[in-house]
Amino acid sequence: MSDPERQGPAADTAPKVRGKRFRESIARLLADMAGPRQDSYADLKQQLDIRTKELSESLERETATSEVLGIISSAPSDLEPVFNTILANAARLCEASYATLWLCEGDAIRAVALHGDVPDAYAAELQRITPFRSDPGVGAVRVARTGQMVHIADLSAEQPYRDRYPLAVAAVELAGVRTLLGVPMLKKNEVVGLISIYRREVRPFTDKQIALVTSFASQAVIAIENARLLDELRDRTAELSESLEQQTATADVLKVISRSKFELQPVLDALVESATRLCEAENSFIFLRDEWCTFPTCWPIRNSPGMNRKDSAASAQCSASHCSETEAASAS
């Protein structure tokens, strides 16, 4: 038979043992559950940070685009502030040291806008060598000739620099350029210019930054096209206005002729007044041949309204002298 005293304590401690094991199991379960939760929280926080950064960058891009379009609409004929704003935003958003906007001039390119703390020596050299014509191996020229984007990780390792082309040498040795991105400004597949951004370190630009500069290049083309169309509109308006003035003057003279069938002077008055005004002249004359001379002589019979009698008489005397000299020369 078993001893009751030995069984008693064992029976009393059994629930305690089971309780301890239960608590340990619960603790392990909670620990196992807490681990994934912590990992999940860290992942969510990381995704939130990434998303927040993307939204912030997108907002900056939209703000920059709105700024450029605002300047284009406020001053459509003035390209300088548009170019400067485009380069400033491109350099800031793409973390570039410098930015340059080039325009094509035939087979050459000219730097028309610069942004950044460009060394004076580089700016002077750039001014000296542009408009620039060189081997298409040079980044900016290659973009202009091919219409394709050029992305160079280290300009000092490129062949144009080793071959000592002036533009590459100036960029590396005077401006400290290493990484370069050139994006064409295209108008119906025609290259009208390009935008170049530079870094003074070997750090290639991201796809998003390349897309941003491409967008800025499109905006620059819009600005150039708007300015061209506005200039054409102004020229056409001026031509139409001048043509209308001429037609109006002709109609006025015809009216005077129809009202003055037997009077010559009103018709002559209308003619000299219209000629003086439309040709922006100070004075005008109408001369009539004198048939009583051996050789026909031109005498002024009407001068412009703003000319006094003294000037008119002097002109008549000059004309008579000229005709006399002509007559004498012919007789001899």
What does this molecule look like?
There is one protein chain. The protein has about 325 residues and is of the alpha+beta class. It has two domains: about 65-230, Beta-Lactamase; about 260-330, no CATH class. The chain is built from nine helices and seven strands. The chain has helices spanning about 5-75, 80-95, 120-130, 140-145, 160, 165-175, 205-260, 265-280, 310-330, and strands spanning about 100-105, 110-115, 150, 180-185, 190-200, 285-290, 295-305. Strands 2-1-5-4-3 form a five-stranded antiparallel beta sheet, with helices on both faces. A hairpin with a 2-residue loop joins strand 1 and strand 2 (about 110-115). Helix 1 packs parallel to helix 7. The protein is elongated, with a radius of gyration of 43 Å. The termini are far apart. Mean pLDDT is about 75; it is low at about 295-300 and about 325-330.
Fold blueprint:
Blueprint (H helix, E strand, L loop, with lengths): L3 H71 L4 H15 L4 E8 L2 E8 L4 H10 L9 H8 L3 E3 L6 H4 L3 H9 L4 E9 L2 E10 L7 H53 L5 H14 L6 E6 L6 E7 L5 H23 L1
Antiparallel strand pairs: 1-2, 1-5, 3-4, 4-5, 6-7
